[in-house]
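User: Can you help me understand a structure? I only have the sequence.
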Amino acid sequence: MIFSNAFAQEAAEAAAPAAQQSPLMSFVPFILIFLVFYFLLIKPQKKTSGRANL
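Assistant: Let's start by predicting it. Here is the structure, written out as tokens:
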């Protein structure tokens, strides 16, 4: 029982530095999603609406 508790604490301490990441890195997925939406949805829509106005 004591050994399993010590092993669990060791594993938690080893994983703790990996959990600490830069706040900027947490925004990277949102930026990538925005870029995908921009190039797949927004830009083609502007292109077609520009042709309709001519």
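Now, to help you interpret it: Residues 43 and 49 are 10 Å apart (CA to CA). The chain has a mean pLDDT of 75. Let me know which part you'd like to focus on.
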